[in-house]
Design goal:
t-SNARE coiled-coil homology domain-containing protein, 283 residues, single chain, T_SNARE_dom, 10 helices
Length: 283
C-alpha cells in the first residue's frame, strides 16, 4: 500500500470510548460507503507496540487484504496517512490480542475493548453512515432492480408531465370556448382541418419535426374523450394514467409537443383504435 493510494474520507468523527478518543472515518470504496478505524491510536490506548501490531495485521491474509491507508484530516502533526481496518474487521484484530500477555494494569482495558468497542463505534457512527451514503457524491452499487426502478421513475415523471399538459390544454380550450361564439369555434375547426392537411405536407417534407400546437390539442382532445368513455364504463381506475403510460411506452414521449410529425397519424390511429375497441365491447 503506497501513500499516494491512500483513501480520502467523506466524513470523520471522534468517538469517546470510556476515556479514549477514537477517530472513525467514512470512506467510499468499491462503490460502497464503509467505516474505517485507524489502528495505531487504539494500540497506544492499549499500551501495545504499534510496530508489532502492524506486522501482525500484514501477516494475517484476511486483515492484510482489508487494511487500507486513509488520509485523515484530524491526524494533527506528522504523517496524516493512517493504516485502517473496516469496522466489521476490527474485532478480528482485537480478538487476536492475548489479554493475558499485556501489562497487568491494561488487562481489563483490553478485555473491555474486545467486549464493547465494536458496538460503541457502530452505534456512534450509524446515523452518519446512513446520511453519508445518501448525500455524498459517490458510486452506488447497482443491483438488478435498479434499471426497473429507473424505468418506473421515468414513466412516472412522463405520466405526471403529460397530465399537467393535458390539464393545461383542457383549461385553455374551456376558457377559449367560454370566450368565443359559435362562429369562432367553427373557424377554429376549419383551421384545425387546414392544419391537418398542412401537417401531411410537413410530414413529407420534414418527418422529424415535432407536431404543432393545434395537432397537440387534437391529440389532447382525443385523450380526454377516450378517458371519459373509459371512466363512464369503469370508475375504479384512473384511465388518464393508463393512456399516458401507454403513450409513453409506445412512442417514448413525455409531452404532446415532443411527438414527431412522423408519429402524429400513428398516435391518432392508436387512440381511435382504442376507442373503437372499447365501443365494440359495448355493442
Amino acid at each position: 500500500m503506497e501513500e499516494e493510494n491512500a483513501l480520502i474520507p467523506m466524513a470523520e468523527k471522534s468517538v469517546m470510548f470510556y476515556d479514549d478518543e477514537i477517530v472513525t472515518t467514512l470512506v467510499a470504496y468499491n462503490g460502497q460507503s464503509q467505516m474505517y478505524i485507524p489502528i495505531r491510536p487504539i494500540c497506544e490506548h492499549l499500551g501495545l507496540s504499534w510496530t508489532g501490531q502492524r506486522e501482525r495485521i500484514h501477516r494475517d491474509p484476511v486483515l492484510d487484504a482489508e487494511a487500507k491507508l486513509v488520509r485523515l484530516t484530524r491526524a494533527g502533526r506528522g504523517d496524516p496517512t493512517a493504516l485502517c481496518l473496516p469496522l466489521k474487521f476490527l474485532n478480528g484484530w482485537l480478538f487476536g490480542i492475548n489479554a493475558a500477555r499485556v501489562k497487568p494494569e491494561l488487562k481489563e482495558v483490553v478485555i473491555r475493548y474486545q467486549r464493547e468497542c465494536y458496538e460503541a463505534l457502530y452505534q456512534a457512527f450509524q446515523a452518519e453512515t446512513l446520511q453519508g451514503a445518501q448525500s455524498a457524491s459517490q458510486e452506488i452499487t447497482v443491483s438488478p432492480s435498479t434499471t426497473a426502478l429507473e424505468q418506473i421513475r421515468d414513466m412516472g415523471l412522463a405520466i405526471a408531465h403529460l397530465a399537467e399538459q393535458q390539464l393545461e390544454m383542457e383549461q385553455r380550450i374551456n376558457a377559449r370556448f367560454d370566450q368565443t361564439d359559435a362562429r369562432l369555434n367553427n373557424a377554429a375547426r376549419l383551421f384545425a382541418s387546414f392544419d391537418r392537411r398542412l401537417g401531411a405536407v410537413e410530414r413529407r417534407v420534414e418527418p422529424a419535426a415535432v407536431i404543432s400546437d393545434v395537432q397537440a390539442a387534437e391529440i389532447s382532445a382525443k385523450v380526454k374523450a377516450l378517458a371519459e368513455a373509459l371512466t363512464a364504463k369503469d370508475k375504479s381506475k384512473n384511465h388518464y394514467q393508463s393512456i399516458f403510460a401507454e403513450l409513453y411506452r409506445r412512442f417514448e414521449v413525455s409531452s404532446y409537443k415532443l411527438i414527431r410529425q412522423s408519429q402524429y397519424q400513428e398516435v391518432l390511429v392508436f387512440l381511435d383504435h382504442w376507442r373503437a375497441s372499447f365501443d365494440d365491447l359495448d355493442s
